[in-house]
Amino acid sequence: MKKAVSFILSAVCLAAVLSGCASDSGDLLTKTPFPEFSEKDMAGNTVSNDIFSEYDATIVNFWNNGCGSCIAEMPELEELYHEFQEQNINLIGVGADSGESEEQHETAQNILKEKEVTYQNISPDPEGSFYQEFVSELSTYPTTYLVDSEGNIIGAPIAGNVKKQKDKIQQRIDKILNP
């Protein structure tokens, strides 16, 4: 009987902790610094954390060449990119595996061209600290972060299709714009 009660209490505690982690409805949103980076975009231009200060918020979408849902959502992200620019909000992509080889880079470029993507996409160097300490730790694609103008990640990462979670993103943007 003690084992059953202990098991039930453990399950209830675990459920409470997990539901608290998934909740984004409270007033408190965490702020964690986005990792430092200086990487090349698909055109060979250097992009660093300085990009965040140019906008009130930046949506950073991590994708990879083998992720069908990542590729499928690119036209939707393109729409959001243009829509959010009116609010001084940027969107950048990070082709997580695009820097692993010339072939991977070309594949990523072809995907972006085929999907008519105009928002900036970064190709992280797999030998660099940004890739090794952050990008390689991602376990789900697409994964999206919202970053404020000071370079802080606002809230938990958003896994899955961004447009389907636009309300969540807009709530975070509203908290950034109206603290």
Describe this structure in words.
By secondary structure, this protein is an alpha+beta fold. The chain has one domain: Glutaredoxin (3-Layer(aba) Sandwich). Helix content is 38%, strand content 21%. It has helices at residues 2-22, 68-72, 74-85, 102-114, 129-133, 166-177, and strands at 31-33, 38-41, 46-48, 57-63, 89-95, 121-123, 143-148, 152-154, 158-159. The strands form 2 sheets. Strands 3-2-6-5-4-7-9 form a 7-stranded mixed sheet. The protein has a two-stranded antiparallel ribbon with strand order 1-8. A hairpin with a 4-residue loop joins strand 2 (38-41) and strand 3 (46-48). The longest helix is centred in the first third of the chain and has 21 residues, at 2-22. It starts with a helix and ends with a helix. Residues 1-28 have low confidence and may be disordered.
Task: Write a concise synopsis of the structure shown.
The chain contains six helices and nine strands, in the order αββββααβαβαβββα. With 179 residues, the chain is α+β, with helices and mostly antiparallel strands. The protein has a seven-stranded mixed beta sheet with strand order 3-2-6-5-4-7-9. Strands 1-8 form a two-stranded antiparallel ribbon.
